[in-house]
Amino acid sequence: MVFETVGVVGLGTMGAGIAEVFARAGIRVVGVEADQEALDRGLGHLEASTGRALEKGRLSAGEREEILSRVTLTTSRDDLRDADLVVEAIPEVMEYKVALFTDLDRICKPSAVLATNTSSLQVTALAAATGRPGRVVGMHFFNPAPVMGLVEVVGTVVTEPGVVTSVSDLAVRLGKTPVAVGDRAGFVVNRLLLPYLNHAVTLLDHGVAARDDIDNAMRLGVGLPMGPFSLLDLIGLDTSYEIMGVLFEESRSERHVPSPLLRSYVAAGWLGRKSGRGFYGESAAESTPEKAAASTVRVEGSQELAATLAAAGFKDSAEPDVVLRVGEAALGERVVQVRVTGKVAELSGSVLTSRQAVLCARDLLRVAGYTPVPCRRSVIDALLYAHLNDAVHMYSSGYASIADIDAAMRLGCGYPQGPFELMESIGLAKVRDGLRALYAEHLSPSFAPAPLLDQLVTAGLDAFPRA
Length: 467
Ligand code: 3HC
What we know:
Keywords: Oxidoreductase. InterPro entries: 3-OHacyl-CoA_DH_CS, 3-OHacyl-CoA_DH_NAD-bd, 3HC_DH_C, 6-PGluconate_DH-like_C_sf, 6PGD_dom2, NAD(P)-bd_dom_sf. Pfam families: 3HCDH, 3HCDH_N. Belongs to the 3-hydroxyacyl-CoA dehydrogenase family. The structure is a single chain. By secondary structure, the chain is of the alpha/beta class. It has three domains: 177 residues, Rossmann fold (3-Layer(aba) Sandwich), CATH 3.40.50; 76 residues, N-(1-d-carboxylethyl)-l-norvaline Dehydrogenase, domain 2 (Orthogonal Bundle), CATH 1.10.1040.10; 78 residues, NAD(P)-binding Rossmann-like Domain (Rossmann fold, 3-Layer(aba) Sandwich), CATH 3.40.50. 46% of the residues lie in helices and 13% in strands. It contains 18 helices and 13 strands. An eight-stranded mixed beta sheet has the order 3-2-1-4-5-6-7-8, with helices on both faces. Strands 9-10-11-12-13 form a five-stranded mixed beta sheet. Helix 5 links the parallel strand 5 and strand 6. Helix 2 packs antiparallel against helix 3 and helix 7 packs antiparallel against helix 14. It is elongated and about 80 Å long. The two termini are 30 Å apart. 3-hydroxybutanoyl-coenzyme A binds next to helix 2, helix 7, helix 9 and helix 15.
């Protein structure tokens, strides 16, 4: 299959990004929008994105011109008649998409492949709406499309042999890494990513920690490129809520119940970057560096932390202002439990701990160079371990290989390591034991260690089986 002219229908953020990716790879693009106003907005996205690359010196003015000249913009779908492939990126409404696919099927030549960039709808249902179900696939890009290195290529039970391979080869030509998967709600990335993001919203809703603290914990503690709330704002809260709904519809799992807080934000019209406000959006107040209110501190359970605080000028005393306790919990008015992950220090008080002690702990940890994350219990454990556990369940279900899941999360979401690589770095036993502790506390199936993880640890293994 030769793809020389490609149509992109819908030039919102994703569609325009996808058009740019094709044009950059030397492919002619016909970009279609419903009306002139939407077309102008689409052109604006293309110009802004390539303009930014020009500013950063990643494109020359000539290269930018060439890229833009490969894109023809039109409001007429009939202009897609010569396209070898059409990628659809219109809003996630099944009726619109079915109507579009019926239309494309009529307009496009019989050999053309029709692809959807849907993040949540069933590709098979779109295929069935056409007279060429064997040539309909998912081609799922990640936001921002010009940057993220993954394309999920979704084949269905009716896809003709060779189509998935040809579209995957095209993804390679675009400089992306394809991961070929079957048609299951959320595919690989959204099925793993969205429940984790939704879980972060639940923690916020339950007052476990504040928005910025949760974002800091996952970005600075785990090393993810964005915290869950920044990422929700990027993806769009409406899109995220819809994906959760589709996951729940298919799995009926507790893990996939959409957060009521997310629903409220969507109902309020706070959709993230696209509407100017989501979890972020109000101008953040300038934070003035706080001075530590504590001058004496005792650290119990970590010589490393004690040394760092001593080096930062804090002294021990018989009656310290605050006791930082690492490891086994202890109770006391001035005792604050601390867990250090990278440069993040999660801290929580017990029922006996005074608010003053928690504030002292926060301020002095900040002065000592940590990012303090006040929380009722560890945000990192709850969010990360459940997320990793989902990846083990996905692999065990036979949907995707360990290599594909790792590659998908690295390239689709910019993770420094895939979930399996991450579990191996942390230690399988630590992840399993962390899950067991969370399960004992919450009795939620999300935290019950996946049988494969449990068995590997029981067998004394510290790596997952790879083919
Ligand atoms: N368009 C084009 N290029 C962009 C861009 C955009 N919107 N945003 C960033 N870039 C480019 C920059 O020009 C820069 O390129 P350079 O390094 O060659 O100069 C590069 O990307 C890095 O950008 P910045 O330095 O400005 O910003 P960061 O280093 O903070 O990176 C990020 C930004 C790439 C978005 C990074 O934070 C990241 O990887 N975040 C995770 C995003 C993610 O998870 N996406 C997937 C969401 S799920 C999804 O899309 C599926 C859907 O179905 C819901």
